[in-house]
Amino acid sequence: MVAVGTSILPLFLYSVLLFHLPLFLSLDVFLFENCTQGTNFTATSTYQANLNRIVSQLSSLTEFNNGFYNLSVGTSPDNVNAIALCTADRTREQCISCVNYTITELRGACPWNKEAIAWSEFCMVKYANRNLFGNLENDPRKCAPSPAFAMNPDQFNAAVSQLMNKLNFNATAGDPRKYASGQTKSGFDTVYGSVQCTPDLDDASCGSCLNFSTTELLNCCSGKIGCRVLSPNCMLRFESNPFENEAPEPPGPPPPPTHSPTGKASDKFFHNDSLNGIHSLFLCRNDVNTSTCQECVKNSTQTLTERCPTTTGGIIWYDECMLRYSNINFLGQMELNPAYLMWNLANLSNPEEASVNIQGLYSDLVEGAPAEPTKFLTKERPVFNGNESRYGLAQCSRDLNETSCYNCLNYLHTWIEVCCKDKKGWRVGTPSCNIRIEEYQFFNLSTPAAPPPEIQDERLSEEIWLRSSATHVTEAPDTAGIELLTSDCSTT
Ligand SMILES: *[C@@H]1O[C@H](CO)[C@@H](O)[C@H](O)[C@H]1NC(C)=O
Ligand SMILES: *[C@@H]1O[C@H](CO)[C@@H](O)[C@H](O)[C@H]1NC(C)=O
Ligand SMILES: *[C@@H]1O[C@H](CO)[C@@H](O)[C@H](O)[C@H]1NC(C)=O
Ligand SMILES: *[C@@H]1O[C@H](CO)[C@@H](O)[C@H](O)[C@H]1NC(C)=O
Ligand SMILES: *[C@@H]1O[C@H](CO)[C@@H](O)[C@H](O)[C@H]1NC(C)=O
Ligand SMILES: *[C@@H]1O[C@H](CO)[C@@H](O)[C@H](O)[C@H]1NC(C)=O
Ligand SMILES: *[C@@H]1O[C@H](CO)[C@@H](O)[C@H](O)[C@H]1NC(C)=O
Ligand SMILES: *[C@@H]1O[C@H](CO)[C@@H](O)[C@H](O)[C@H]1NC(C)=O
Ligand SMILES: *[C@@H]1O[C@H](CO)[C@@H](O)[C@H](O)[C@H]1NC(C)=O
Ligand SMILES: *[C@@H]1O[C@H](CO)[C@@H](O)[C@H](O)[C@H]1NC(C)=O
Ligand SMILES: *[C@@H]1O[C@H](CO)[C@@H](O)[C@H](O)[C@H]1NC(C)=O
């Protein structure tokens, strides 16, 4: 039996998760603290008074000082020393705000300890009753791996190790910030890394801190797609997506593009616009017919309006289409957040398929779809002796260029690894791209022919759009039910 386009899922049980990934956080997030035990002070002591002065100084910094601060208050035995370090991509305001936030949280977490340290997303703060300046310390330290595994762990680890060694070299080669960042390739993946010492260390101590933490990192983060190792004098991090503010240019797909950069920006299956400060787009699967697409867009407009009546943005995914709007201009931008993951609860009957057939199908889609004018590709992959097939579909939003489409699809494997790779069927999607793989043919092989004439664009762009009263939508013929996957409302 062949199931196509609008087949309903009950054949399978699906699990759905909606992820909000803190990938490009602009806000500080408190990560860890460590209160050194056995170093308590008492209320109304001189130490407390001195510490309060340190806290107040750290909470009201005005100078930038390249994101590094060393402060001292009082005299022995009640002296309090503090150091603070921001990640090198912070501006003055971001740094000052991170230090204020982190010292406030740390004081709350360790109210009576003379010595304590905390790390947050963008900075580290430490204070103690002893000299900290220029002293290399490897403890306390914290390893924070991502839960997701790399597709090809050995290759990925090797790339991480090589990158870290280069970065360690660069950070200790005279940079006054004792900082280096860079990237390298691991198969289809890119690894982004950064390392940074407190600049009070000399190059040798910095190198030894980085070497120590790199060893730690290669152990505790082995096979993971991202990780940080945090210690009092250095911070190391790698991710498979750019995480720094001035992130390096993402590399393009292996062969340089030879196709026309994008398909028609607007047709029956894709439309974007920016009207009255609202940016919006819809995108249909290219293998559904026009009436199904229209029905889907109509339904999604109505449903999203109902679900997100008051928010400044929203997104809804159907099997056949997706619809998105926001008061922030997202057109042309790769957006990985929020993501949905759905998978068939049944496992592959042959687990080895995951690394061969499914991986192969996935790679074909990731390499092929970005070059398609429609950014849409379906693939059938014969397996075993050709007595069975696996089927895949990949699609990027058509406002993306080839590079961003590739990066988006390539990024999905981090989720596939977590949720799906050994399942009989699954879908993973973000606002910019999605992939689906099944053991049955769920798509329509005969894709629509030439794009429709211009006049239709106009008609469509006027009639289907997301206003709170989406009243003048084209009457589409009543077709079989279209399938709602999930939706998300956002506020800015
Ligand atoms: C520091 O943080 C506190 C609490 O979050 C806030 O009330 C205060 O205004 C901040 N100080 C500065 C100088 O930003
Ligand atoms: C901070 O470090 C500098 C550089 O050695 C040192 O001269 C200064 O005294 C330190 N400041 C404080 C407040 O400890
Ligand atoms: C190290 O620094 C050199 C010289 O600035 C640079 O060419 C190289 O790309 C850097 N290495 C990494 C891994 O960033
Ligand atoms: C760090 O490790 C590298 C390579 O393992 C080595 O060449 C270098 O001397 C080490 N640096 C320090 C300061 O230990
Ligand atoms: C729609 O997307 C195309 C392709 O990215 C772009 O050229 C066009 O300006 C966009 N339209 C609007 C209204 O933003
Ligand atoms: C499949 O595509 C053909 C050709 O465009 C179309 O006639 C047919 O209605 C489509 N079927 C479905 C289920 O969308
Ligand atoms: C479009 O596809 C739907 C769903 O497969 C089908 O029910 C409908 O008849 C098709 N309409 C046209 C005009 O081909
Ligand atoms: C949208 O689709 C759902 C599920 O198929 C259906 O119950 C609902 O009536 C549809 N709404 C519109 C406006 O088509
Ligand atoms: C699928 O495999 C996982 C791990 O191998 C196992 O925990 C799970 O129970 C299996 N699920 C089913 C439905 O067989
Ligand atoms: C196809 O072949 C494989 C192994 O060669 C076998 O396990 C599987 O059951 C076959 N599938 C069908 C549909 O015959
Ligand atoms: C693709 O789009 C991204 C995001 O807009 C942009 O940074 C990048 O330079 C573009 N790449 C090409 C090859 O046009």
UniProtKB/TrEMBL annotation:
<feature type="domain" description="Gnk2-homologous">
    <location>
        <begin position="29"/>
        <end position="132"/>
    </location>
</feature>
<dbReference type="Pfam" id="PF01657">
    <property type="entry name" value="Stress-antifung"/>
</dbReference>
<protein>
    <recommendedName>
        <fullName>Gnk2-homologous domain-containing protein</fullName>
    </recommendedName>
</protein>
<feature type="compositionally biased region" description="Pro residues">
    <location>
        <begin position="248"/>
        <end position="259"/>
    </location>
</feature>
<feature type="domain" description="Gnk2-homologous">
    <location>
        <begin position="138"/>
        <end position="243"/>
    </location>
</feature>
<dbReference type="InterPro" id="IPR038408">
    <property type="entry name" value="GNK2_sf"/>
</dbReference>
<keyword id="KW-1133">Transmembrane helix</keyword>
<keyword id="KW-0472">Membrane</keyword>
<feature type="region of interest" description="Disordered">
    <location>
        <begin position="242"/>
        <end position="266"/>
    </location>
</feature>
<feature type="transmembrane region" description="Helical">
    <location>
        <begin position="12"/>
        <end position="32"/>
    </location>
</feature>
<feature type="domain" description="Gnk2-homologous">
    <location>
        <begin position="336"/>
        <end position="442"/>
    </location>
</feature>
<dbReference type="InterPro" id="IPR002902">
    <property type="entry name" value="GNK2"/>
</dbReference>
<keyword id="KW-0677">Repeat</keyword>
<keyword id="KW-0732">Signal</keyword>
<keyword id="KW-0812">Transmembrane</keyword>
